[in-house]
Design brief:
Strand order of the largest sheet: 7-2-1-11-18-17
Bound molecules: flavin-adenine dinucleotide
Order of helices and strands: EHEEEHEEHEEEEEHHEEEEHHEEEHH
CATH topology of the largest domain: FAD/NAD(P)-binding domain
Number of helices: 9
Largest sheet: 6 strands, mixed
CATH architecture of the largest domain: 3-Layer(bba) Sandwich
Structural class: alpha+beta
Helix content: 25-40%
Number of domains: 2
Shape: globular
Protein backbone atom coordinates (compact mmCIF):
# COMPACT_ATOMS: atom_id res chain seq x y z
CA UNK A 1 0.00 0.00 0.00
CA UNK A 2 1.60 3.26 -1.09
CA UNK A 3 -0.71 5.75 -2.79
CA UNK A 4 -3.36 7.24 -0.46
CA UNK A 5 -6.27 9.58 -1.23
CA UNK A 6 -7.48 11.83 1.59
CA UNK A 7 -10.79 13.63 0.99
CA UNK A 8 -11.03 16.89 2.97
CA UNK A 9 -8.23 19.19 4.12
CA UNK A 10 -9.49 20.29 7.54
CA UNK A 11 -7.62 19.38 10.72
CA UNK A 12 -8.44 15.67 10.27
CA UNK A 13 -7.30 15.51 6.63
CA UNK A 14 -4.18 17.56 7.33
CA UNK A 15 -3.27 15.37 10.33
CA UNK A 16 -3.66 12.23 8.23
CA UNK A 17 -1.46 13.73 5.53
CA UNK A 18 1.27 14.62 8.05
CA UNK A 19 1.34 11.18 9.70
CA UNK A 20 1.20 9.22 6.44
CA UNK A 21 3.83 11.32 4.64
CA UNK A 22 6.08 10.96 7.71
CA UNK A 23 5.43 7.21 7.47
CA UNK A 24 6.75 7.14 3.89
CA UNK A 25 3.42 7.00 2.01
CA UNK A 26 2.41 9.10 -0.98
CA UNK A 27 -0.64 11.24 -0.16
CA UNK A 28 -3.00 13.28 -2.35
CA UNK A 29 -5.47 15.49 -0.49
CA UNK A 30 -8.62 16.75 -2.22
CA UNK A 31 -10.68 19.67 -0.92
CA UNK A 32 -13.59 21.59 -2.38
CA UNK A 33 -12.34 24.85 -0.85
CA UNK A 34 -9.88 27.31 -2.34
CA UNK A 35 -7.42 26.62 0.48
CA UNK A 36 -6.86 24.01 3.17
CA UNK A 37 -8.09 24.43 6.76
CA UNK A 38 -11.77 23.51 6.61
CA UNK A 39 -13.60 24.93 9.62
CA UNK A 40 -10.28 26.41 10.79
CA UNK A 41 -10.93 29.15 8.26
CA UNK A 42 -9.51 32.63 7.83
CA UNK A 43 -10.73 35.36 5.48
CA UNK A 44 -8.69 38.50 4.76
CA UNK A 45 -10.56 41.73 3.98
CA UNK A 46 -8.40 44.86 3.83
CA UNK A 47 -6.43 45.09 7.09
CA UNK A 48 -8.74 42.58 8.77
CA UNK A 49 -8.14 38.88 9.10
CA UNK A 50 -11.29 37.13 10.27
CA UNK A 51 -11.16 33.63 11.79
CA UNK A 52 -14.83 33.04 11.11
CA UNK A 53 -14.87 29.31 11.99
CA UNK A 54 -13.00 27.93 15.00
CA UNK A 55 -11.89 30.87 17.09
CA UNK A 56 -9.18 29.09 19.07
CA UNK A 57 -8.01 25.66 20.21
CA UNK A 58 -7.47 24.16 23.61
CA UNK A 59 -4.94 21.35 23.99
CA UNK A 60 -5.56 18.57 26.53
CA UNK A 61 -4.03 15.27 25.38
CA UNK A 62 -0.41 14.18 25.04
CA UNK A 63 -0.53 13.70 21.25
CA UNK A 64 -1.88 17.19 20.62
CA UNK A 65 0.64 18.66 23.11
CA UNK A 66 3.44 17.12 21.06
CA UNK A 67 1.93 18.55 17.88
CA UNK A 68 1.57 21.93 19.57
CA UNK A 69 5.30 21.92 20.35
CA UNK A 70 6.00 21.40 16.64
CA UNK A 71 3.66 24.26 15.69
CA UNK A 72 5.37 26.49 18.26
CA UNK A 73 8.81 25.69 16.84
CA UNK A 74 7.49 26.53 13.36
CA UNK A 75 5.98 29.80 14.63
CA UNK A 76 2.45 29.02 13.39
CA UNK A 77 0.63 29.16 16.77
CA UNK A 78 0.44 31.64 19.61
CA UNK A 79 -1.57 32.03 22.81
CA UNK A 80 -4.59 34.33 22.84
CA UNK A 81 -4.76 35.37 26.49
CA UNK A 82 -7.89 37.49 26.04
CA UNK A 83 -9.92 34.32 25.40
CA UNK A 84 -8.62 32.43 28.40
CA UNK A 85 -10.75 31.48 31.35
CA UNK A 86 -8.82 30.20 34.36
CA UNK A 87 -5.59 28.31 33.69
CA UNK A 88 -6.62 26.73 30.37
CA UNK A 89 -4.48 28.16 27.52
CA UNK A 90 -6.24 29.13 24.28
CA UNK A 91 -4.18 28.75 21.11
CA UNK A 92 -4.65 30.39 17.72
CA UNK A 93 -2.96 29.87 14.39
CA UNK A 94 -0.86 32.84 13.34
CA UNK A 95 -1.33 34.90 11.35
CA UNK A 96 -4.71 33.11 11.11
CA UNK A 97 -6.32 29.81 12.12
CA UNK A 98 -5.72 28.39 8.64
CA UNK A 99 -1.94 28.81 9.05
CA UNK A 100 -1.55 25.32 10.53
CA UNK A 101 -2.71 23.54 7.38
CA UNK A 102 0.30 24.22 5.11
CA UNK A 103 2.69 22.97 7.81
CA UNK A 104 0.65 19.77 8.21
CA UNK A 105 0.40 19.23 4.45
CA UNK A 106 4.12 19.59 3.75
CA UNK A 107 5.15 16.70 1.46
CA UNK A 108 1.57 15.82 0.47
CA UNK A 109 -0.06 16.97 -2.76
CA UNK A 110 -3.06 19.24 -2.18
CA UNK A 111 -5.68 19.48 -4.91
CA UNK A 112 -7.96 22.39 -3.91
CA UNK A 113 -11.25 23.42 -5.55
CA UNK A 114 -12.04 19.76 -6.22
CA UNK A 115 -15.38 18.54 -4.92
CA UNK A 116 -15.30 14.77 -4.77
CA UNK A 117 -18.69 13.51 -5.94
CA UNK A 118 -18.07 9.75 -6.13
CA UNK A 119 -15.76 6.98 -4.96
CA UNK A 120 -15.45 3.34 -5.96
CA UNK A 121 -13.15 0.45 -6.77
CA UNK A 122 -12.21 -1.43 -9.92
CA UNK A 123 -9.43 -3.93 -10.70
CA UNK A 124 -6.73 -1.24 -10.28
CA UNK A 125 -7.86 -0.07 -6.83
CA UNK A 126 -9.81 2.98 -5.63
CA UNK A 127 -10.94 5.74 -8.00
CA UNK A 128 -12.40 9.17 -7.25
CA UNK A 129 -14.63 11.35 -9.37
CA UNK A 130 -15.54 15.02 -9.31
CA UNK A 131 -18.36 16.76 -11.15
CA UNK A 132 -16.35 16.72 -14.37
CA UNK A 133 -15.56 12.99 -14.31
CA UNK A 134 -12.87 10.62 -13.09
CA UNK A 135 -9.73 11.91 -11.35
CA UNK A 136 -6.85 10.48 -13.43
CA UNK A 137 -5.17 8.41 -10.69
CA UNK A 138 -5.90 5.29 -8.69
CA UNK A 139 -5.29 4.72 -5.01
CA UNK A 140 -4.52 1.90 -2.60
CA UNK A 141 -6.73 3.43 0.13
CA UNK A 142 -9.34 6.19 0.46
CA UNK A 143 -9.70 8.15 3.71
CA UNK A 144 -12.76 10.39 4.07
CA UNK A 145 -12.69 13.30 6.56
CA UNK A 146 -15.86 15.26 5.69
CA UNK A 147 -18.64 16.16 8.13
CA UNK A 148 -20.86 13.07 8.41
CA UNK A 149 -23.79 14.15 6.15
CA UNK A 150 -21.35 15.03 3.34
CA UNK A 151 -19.38 11.82 3.91
CA UNK A 152 -22.63 9.81 3.87
CA UNK A 153 -23.33 10.99 0.31
CA UNK A 154 -20.00 9.46 -0.79
CA UNK A 155 -20.41 6.22 1.16
CA UNK A 156 -24.03 5.76 0.00
CA UNK A 157 -22.99 6.02 -3.66
CA UNK A 158 -19.79 3.98 -3.33
CA UNK A 159 -19.49 1.44 -6.16
CA UNK A 160 -17.51 -1.79 -6.25
CA UNK A 161 -17.05 -1.93 -2.45
CA UNK A 162 -19.44 -2.37 0.47
CA UNK A 163 -19.50 0.92 2.41
CA UNK A 164 -22.75 0.12 4.24
CA UNK A 165 -21.19 0.13 7.75
CA UNK A 166 -19.74 3.58 7.00
CA UNK A 167 -23.09 4.89 5.72
CA UNK A 168 -24.83 3.59 8.84
CA UNK A 169 -22.25 5.10 11.20
CA UNK A 170 -22.65 8.53 9.55
CA UNK A 171 -26.34 8.57 10.54
CA UNK A 172 -25.32 8.39 14.23
CA UNK A 173 -23.44 11.72 14.12
CA UNK A 174 -25.26 15.03 14.43
CA UNK A 175 -24.22 18.70 14.28
CA UNK A 176 -25.36 22.14 15.35
CA UNK A 177 -25.17 24.84 12.68
CA UNK A 178 -23.74 28.34 13.12
CA UNK A 179 -24.20 31.67 11.39
CA UNK A 180 -21.00 33.73 11.70
CA UNK A 181 -20.85 37.48 11.10
CA UNK A 182 -17.63 39.31 10.17
CA UNK A 183 -17.66 43.06 10.87
CA UNK A 184 -15.15 45.89 10.88
CA UNK A 185 -15.46 49.46 12.19
CA UNK A 186 -13.56 52.69 11.59
CA UNK A 187 -13.20 53.33 15.32
CA UNK A 188 -12.60 51.27 18.45
CA UNK A 189 -15.71 49.94 20.19
CA UNK A 190 -16.05 50.27 23.91
CA UNK A 191 -16.35 46.52 24.59
CA UNK A 192 -14.26 43.66 26.01
CA UNK A 193 -12.20 41.58 23.55
CA UNK A 194 -14.19 38.37 24.11
CA UNK A 195 -17.83 37.98 25.08
CA UNK A 196 -19.36 34.58 25.88
CA UNK A 197 -23.09 35.19 25.59
CA UNK A 198 -26.34 33.55 26.60
CA UNK A 199 -26.77 30.29 24.62
CA UNK A 200 -30.54 30.85 24.58
CA UNK A 201 -30.26 34.30 23.03
CA UNK A 202 -29.48 35.32 19.42
CA UNK A 203 -25.69 35.53 19.86
CA UNK A 204 -23.44 32.95 21.48
CA UNK A 205 -20.04 34.57 21.07
CA UNK A 206 -18.48 37.87 19.99
CA UNK A 207 -14.76 38.64 19.81
CA UNK A 208 -12.46 41.36 18.62
CA UNK A 209 -10.40 39.32 16.14
CA UNK A 210 -7.99 42.22 15.80
CA UNK A 211 -6.90 41.51 19.40
CA UNK A 212 -5.38 38.21 18.29
CA UNK A 213 -1.60 37.90 18.01
CA UNK A 214 -0.23 39.01 14.62
CA UNK A 215 -3.53 40.64 13.62
CA UNK A 216 -3.54 44.38 12.86
CA UNK A 217 -4.33 45.83 16.30
CA UNK A 218 -5.03 49.25 14.75
CA UNK A 219 -8.01 47.86 12.85
CA UNK A 220 -11.29 47.03 14.57
CA UNK A 221 -12.40 43.62 13.32
CA UNK A 222 -15.03 41.43 15.00
CA UNK A 223 -16.36 37.91 14.58
CA UNK A 224 -19.79 37.23 16.02
CA UNK A 225 -21.36 33.76 16.20
CA UNK A 226 -25.11 33.29 16.48
CA UNK A 227 -26.22 30.77 19.09
CA UNK A 228 -26.80 27.19 17.92
CA UNK A 229 -30.54 27.50 18.46
CA UNK A 230 -30.90 30.74 16.50
CA UNK A 231 -28.61 29.42 13.74
CA UNK A 232 -30.61 26.20 13.35
CA UNK A 233 -33.86 28.21 13.15
CA UNK A 234 -32.41 30.56 10.49
CA UNK A 235 -30.30 28.14 8.37
CA UNK A 236 -32.67 28.53 5.44
CA UNK A 237 -32.01 32.28 5.06
CA UNK A 238 -29.46 33.86 2.72
CA UNK A 239 -26.42 35.76 4.11
CA UNK A 240 -27.87 39.14 3.08
CA UNK A 241 -31.04 38.39 5.08
CA UNK A 242 -29.10 37.29 8.15
CA UNK A 243 -26.65 40.22 8.20
CA UNK A 244 -29.09 42.93 9.41
CA UNK A 245 -30.57 40.57 12.02
CA UNK A 246 -27.20 39.70 13.56
CA UNK A 247 -25.98 43.31 13.32
CA UNK A 248 -29.05 44.45 15.27
CA UNK A 249 -28.41 41.77 17.93
CA UNK A 250 -24.77 42.86 18.20
CA UNK A 251 -25.75 46.52 18.51
CA UNK A 252 -28.25 45.55 21.20
CA UNK A 253 -25.54 43.62 23.04
CA UNK A 254 -23.20 46.63 22.91
CA UNK A 255 -25.95 49.11 23.74
CA UNK A 256 -24.76 51.28 20.81
CA UNK A 257 -26.04 51.75 17.25
CA UNK A 258 -22.55 51.40 15.71
CA UNK A 259 -22.39 51.01 11.92
CA UNK A 260 -19.76 48.72 10.39
CA UNK A 261 -17.69 49.57 7.32
CA UNK A 262 -17.62 45.86 6.40
CA UNK A 263 -20.30 43.27 7.11
CA UNK A 264 -20.49 39.69 5.84
CA UNK A 265 -22.29 36.61 7.12
CA UNK A 266 -21.09 33.03 6.62
CA UNK A 267 -23.23 29.91 6.98
CA UNK A 268 -21.71 26.85 8.70
CA UNK A 269 -24.25 24.10 8.17
CA UNK A 270 -22.21 21.54 10.13
CA UNK A 271 -20.40 23.67 12.71
CA UNK A 272 -20.13 21.86 16.05
CA UNK A 273 -20.67 18.17 16.75
CA UNK A 274 -23.72 17.62 18.95
CA UNK A 275 -23.62 13.83 19.05
CA UNK A 276 -20.33 12.10 18.16
CA UNK A 277 -19.99 8.52 16.96
CA UNK A 278 -18.19 7.51 20.15
CA UNK A 279 -15.39 5.61 18.31
CA UNK A 280 -12.09 7.24 17.42
CA UNK A 281 -12.33 6.39 13.69
CA UNK A 282 -13.57 3.74 11.25
CA UNK A 283 -11.17 1.55 9.25
CA UNK A 284 -11.94 -1.39 7.00
CA UNK A 285 -8.61 -3.13 6.55
CA UNK A 286 -9.83 -5.49 3.83
CA UNK A 287 -11.28 -2.77 1.61
CA UNK A 288 -8.83 -0.07 2.71
CA UNK A 289 -11.50 2.52 3.34
CA UNK A 290 -11.40 4.83 6.36
CA UNK A 291 -13.22 7.69 8.07
CA UNK A 292 -11.94 10.25 10.61
CA UNK A 293 -13.23 13.65 11.72
CA UNK A 294 -14.31 15.56 14.82
CA UNK A 295 -17.65 13.72 14.33
CA UNK A 296 -16.04 10.56 15.71
CA UNK A 297 -15.06 11.98 19.10
CA UNK A 298 -16.39 15.44 19.92
CA UNK A 299 -16.77 19.07 18.95
CA UNK A 300 -13.22 20.41 19.13
CA UNK A 301 -10.21 20.76 16.84
CA UNK A 302 -8.37 18.31 19.10
CA UNK A 303 -11.09 15.70 18.51
CA UNK A 304 -10.50 15.91 14.75
CA UNK A 305 -6.75 15.62 15.38
CA UNK A 306 -7.13 12.58 17.68
CA UNK A 307 -9.51 10.85 15.30
CA UNK A 308 -7.12 11.29 12.36
CA UNK A 309 -4.18 10.12 14.44
CA UNK A 310 -6.06 6.93 15.29
CA UNK A 311 -6.89 6.28 11.63
CA UNK A 312 -3.31 7.02 10.56
CA UNK A 313 -2.16 4.33 13.02
CA UNK A 314 -4.39 1.72 11.31
CA UNK A 315 -3.26 2.73 7.82
CA UNK A 316 0.45 2.65 8.74
CA UNK A 317 0.12 -0.77 10.38
CA UNK A 318 -1.68 -2.06 7.31
CA UNK A 319 1.04 -0.64 5.03
CA UNK A 320 3.93 -2.11 7.05
C1 LIG B 1 -18.25 28.60 13.94
C2 LIG B 1 -17.36 27.54 14.52
C3 LIG B 1 -16.72 27.75 15.74
C4 LIG B 1 -15.89 26.77 16.27
N1 LIG B 1 -15.20 27.03 17.42
C5 LIG B 1 -14.30 26.14 17.87
C6 LIG B 1 -13.47 26.45 18.97
O1 LIG B 1 -13.52 27.57 19.50
N2 LIG B 1 -12.59 25.51 19.40
C7 LIG B 1 -12.50 24.27 18.81
O2 LIG B 1 -11.65 23.46 19.23
N3 LIG B 1 -13.27 23.96 17.76
C8 LIG B 1 -14.16 24.85 17.27
N4 LIG B 1 -14.92 24.55 16.18
C9 LIG B 1 -14.89 23.17 15.64
C10 LIG B 1 -13.63 22.88 14.80
O3 LIG B 1 -13.53 23.85 13.80
C11 LIG B 1 -13.78 21.49 14.19
O4 LIG B 1 -13.94 20.54 15.24
C12 LIG B 1 -12.60 21.03 13.33
O5 LIG B 1 -12.02 22.08 12.62
C13 LIG B 1 -13.09 19.92 12.40
O6 LIG B 1 -12.06 19.47 11.54
P1 LIG B 1 -12.37 18.32 10.47
O7 LIG B 1 -11.13 18.11 9.68
O8 LIG B 1 -12.98 17.16 11.16
O9 LIG B 1 -13.52 18.91 9.52
P2 LIG B 1 -13.52 20.18 8.54
O10 LIG B 1 -12.66 21.26 9.07
O11 LIG B 1 -14.95 20.49 8.27
O12 LIG B 1 -12.84 19.63 7.20
C14 LIG B 1 -13.58 18.98 6.19
C15 LIG B 1 -13.10 19.48 4.82
O13 LIG B 1 -13.77 18.75 3.81
C16 LIG B 1 -14.02 19.61 2.72
N5 LIG B 1 -15.10 19.03 1.91
C17 LIG B 1 -16.42 18.90 2.25
N6 LIG B 1 -17.06 18.22 1.26
C18 LIG B 1 -16.13 17.90 0.33
C19 LIG B 1 -16.17 17.16 -0.89
N7 LIG B 1 -17.29 16.57 -1.36
N8 LIG B 1 -15.03 17.03 -1.61
C20 LIG B 1 -13.85 17.59 -1.16
N9 LIG B 1 -13.78 18.29 -0.01
C21 LIG B 1 -14.88 18.42 0.72
C22 LIG B 1 -14.34 20.95 3.36
O14 LIG B 1 -14.09 22.02 2.43
C23 LIG B 1 -13.38 20.95 4.55
O15 LIG B 1 -12.17 21.62 4.22
C24 LIG B 1 -15.72 25.52 15.59
C25 LIG B 1 -16.35 25.34 14.35
C26 LIG B 1 -17.16 26.33 13.82
C27 LIG B 1 -17.75 26.14 12.45
Amino acid sequence: MHNIAVIGAGMAGCTLARRLVDGGLSVRVFDKGRAAGGRMATRAVGACRFDHGAQFMSVRGAAMSEQLADWQRAGVVSRWPQAEVGADARWVGVPGMNALAPRMLWGAELQPQTTIAGIGTDRLGWWLANDEGMIPDCFDAVLVTLPAPQAAALFDGCSGADATPFSEAMRDISYASCWALMLSFDHRLDAPDCMRLDRNGVLGWAARDSSKPQHDAASECWVVHASARWSDEHMGLEPEDVEPLLLAAFQMQLGMAVMPVHLRAHRWRYARVLKPLGRDCIWDDGQRLGYASDGCLGERVEDAFDSANALAGHVLRSAA
